[in-house]
Amino acid sequence: MSWRLARNAILLAALSLGHVSAFAQNTLTIIPTESQPHAPCSLRNGTDQPAGPEISIVDVTFSGSLQIPVDEQQQIANSIKQKIHGTSLDDVTDEALERVRAGWQDRGYFRVQVTGETSTLSSSSASQRIAMRVYVDEGERYTLSRITFKNNKAISNVKALRRLFPIKDGDTFSRAKIAIGLENLRKAYGNFGYINFTSVPDTAFDDENHSIALEIDMEEGMQFVIGGINVSGLDEPARQELLDGLSIKPGQIYNRRLWEVALLSSAAAPCECPNHEQLREDTKSGIVTLTLDFRPCPAN
Predict the structure, then answer these.
(1) 4, 97, 134, 274: which has the highest count of C-beta atoms within 10 A?
(2) pTM
(3) CATH number of 54-137
(4) Within the chain, which residue ranges are assigned CATH 3.10.20.310?
(5) Number of other residues whose CB lies within 10 A of the CB of residue 35
(6) 194-217 pLDDT, tens per residue?
(7) Which whole number is the average pLDDT over 270-290?
(8) Does 3-11+224-293 carry CATH code 3.10.20?
(9) Do 199 and 182 contact (CB within 8 A), yes or no?
(10) 3-state secondary structure string, 87-123?
(11) Do the Cβ atoms of 175 and 106 come closer than 8 Å?
């Protein structure tokens, strides 16, 4: 396979990398997609069939003693109508309620409680259009009082860590901004070779002043060095061209940003395998082996 035919797939995949976040009552958990093996190529075998009609939410209404402006409520409703679809009514409903919860938490209502019910507007074998009524118990509105860190040994500059969070002390508490900061934190540690870095924020409420303090417990893990870079499925000239063009080399401390820049600038070929790019870690030696595999998927 020619290396130059590979460009668009990795570029598109790298640009689509993201994360999923979930809030518990007192804890924020971020689960980056990149914590799993990278999957620039999709597995399309034509066997996946919808389990039922495609469900879409076409109307959303809120009730309760609501403080956030009507236009912001409409923004939340629109995001639900535009982005949530599926074939399971329970899954669609749960995802919609989670998006409502996130919308209010982004506006300071950390302890918001939501419940909802749906009604069918129209239905066929191919599609089902539903309306959703959501009751919102906002609770108190909170500001962020401070963010502190513990067990940060590799990066001891607390001011630098704090700047990774796009929210200032005294600002309205925002779930989304905290999630962005945690993702930035993970990326920063990844640039220093800490592939398995995790962080767990713990919240402390000051109900008298309606504020929240976050203490972020860092689990840095091991720092990894690149032991080798493997390339499969390309002819030798194309393989060597790829390796020569990479800015990340064996013997260097693994740098997440440089590896992604290398992928974006080098490009890769369309393929059907979900494990096109792999990181194989040896936790005893602190060595990571990087692999790009352009071979076709084995037949099922």
Answers:
(1) 134
(2) 0.76
(3) 3.10.20.310
(4) 54-137
(5) 13
(6) 999 999 999 999 999 999 999 999
(7) 75
(8) yes
(9) yes
(10) CCHHHHHHHHHHHHHHHHHCCCCCCCEEEEEEEEEEE
(11) yes
* pLDDT exceeds cutoff 60 at 32: no
Cα–Cα dist 260/279, whole Å:
12
Task: Give how far the C-alpha of residue 153 lies from the chain's centroid of Cα atoms, to the nearest Å.
Answer: 25
Lowest mean pLDDT among 50-54, 148-152, 203-207, 295-299: 295-299
CA distance 68 to 108: 10
Looking at residue 38, the DSSP 8-state letter turns out to be P
Q: What is the pLDDT of residue 238?
A: 86
What is the token pair recorded at 111? 């302890």
Asked if 84 contacts 96 with a C-beta cutoff of 8 angstroms, the reply is yes
Tell me the two tokens of residue 229.
Answer: 């870079």
Residue 72's H or E segment, with its range, is helix 70-83
- Nearest CA among 208, 202, 211, 75 for reference residue 141: 211
| Residue 152 binned pLDDT confidence (cut-offs 50, 70, 90) | very high
Residue 270 has pLDDT above 80, yes or no: no
Cβ-proximal residues to 63 (8 Å cutoff; 6+ apart), any chain: 133, 134, 135, 136
Please tell me the predicted confidence (pLDDT) of residue 9. Answer: 31
